[in-house]
Design brief:
The chain has about 290 residues and is an alpha/beta fold. It is about 35% helix and about 20% strand. It binds 2'-monophosphoadenosine-5'-diphosphate.
Length: about 290
């Protein structure tokens, strides 16, 4: 987005920011500033390196200075739950806050990650979540949110696999309690699934292998594979999945989806999703 499209900064400029640690490589400033420019809004989005011990002070400072909103990233999403005045249903459901809106002096916490994932699965892979059979790898923070969101979207059957099996069992138990109609089990399925979703962090490092045990589950048994990792753009899992003829997508669409939702919460306007996606791809991949 050319600089000239930005409304000039003046005393009326509204501010948003992302707080995290580390924050240097965040694509959020590029994404949101491109969106503000596309809509001609006199808004700006900044990034701040904030140590967890200063998070409360940073949120209070942003509120005191009249910021429109904040995003929170690693390691702040859980901590922030206790630092807002009110939790939107999304933040209550997922037990984490990635977006704050300041409204009439109050800080309201939201979570847009789960919606970002569901939208990306629909748009990037054309997966119909209702009634789908899904194999989910990973039972950390991202895996738990993904599992609960898939359940809330009425998938038919969920297979949860994790290196530490007890964590997958714990999430399976939570889903059985909250969503009695969904079949959920730990371990690999024998039959075919509609979607394989990676929510582990295995694949982030260049030397990482695939999180899927192909002796237990063949990539021929799924139509689509989604990897929540977007850097590198093609993990070992996605490479193998493409070679096996699966439809594939990485997590860039989820990043854009959670950002688009936050943008709409702050501005009340429809997010220019295509603009945001181009800006993120430019920032992350230099394209
Ligand atoms: P996030 O918030 O990104 O989910 P996390 O909560 O630390 O991060 O979870 C990381 C996930 O990646 C977990 O499912 C973890 O498996 P364990 O629960 O057994 O730790 C998984 N993971 C990380 N490194 C892995 C590896 N080398 N092999 C397989 N799974 C791995």
């Amino acid at each position: 987005m050319p600089q000239s499209n930005f409304a000039p900064i003046n005393a009326a400029t509204r501010l948003c920011a992302v707080l995290g640690s580390p924050i240097r490589h965040s694509a959020s400033p590029a994404m949101h500033n491109a969106a503000f420019a596309a809509l001609g809004l006199n808004w700006r989005y900044l990034a701040f390196e904030v140590d967890p011990k200063n998070l409360r002070a940073a949120i209070e400072g942003a509120r005191a200075m009249g910021f429109a909103g904040l995003n929170l990233t690693v390691p702040h999403k859980l901590l922030a739950v206790d630092m807002v005045d009110e939790l939107d249903a999304s933040a209550k459901t997922w037990g984490a806050v990635n977006t704050i809106k300041f409204e009439n002096g109050r800080a309201i916490g939201f979570n847009t990650d789960a919606d970002g994932l569901a939208n990306s699965l629909r748009h990037d892979l054309a997966v119909e979540l209702r009634g789908a059979k899904v194999l989910l790898l990973g039972a950390g923070g991202a895996g738990r949110t993904a599992a609960l969101k898939l359940a809330a979207e009425n998938v038919a059957e969920l297979f949860l696999v994790n290196r530490t099996a007890s964590k997958a069992e714990e999430i399976a138990g939570e889903i059985k309690k909250q969503f009695s109609s969904i079949k959920v089990s730990g371990g690999y399925p024998n039959a075919n699934v509609d979607l394989l979703l990676n929510a582990t962090s295995l694949g982030l490092k260049p030397e990482d292998g695939s999180p899927l045990d192909e002796k237990q589950f063949s990539l021929k048994q799924t139509r689509a594979v989604y990897d929540m990792i977007y850097q590198p753009a093609e993990t070992a899992l996605l490479k193998n999945a493409k070679a096996a003829g699966c439809q594939t997508a990485n997590g860039i669409g989820m990043l854009v989806g959670q950002g688009a939702k936050a943008f709409e919460i702050w501005t009340g306007q429809t997010a220019p999703v295509a603009v945001m996606r181009r800006a993120v791809e430019g920032s992350v991949y230099g394209v």
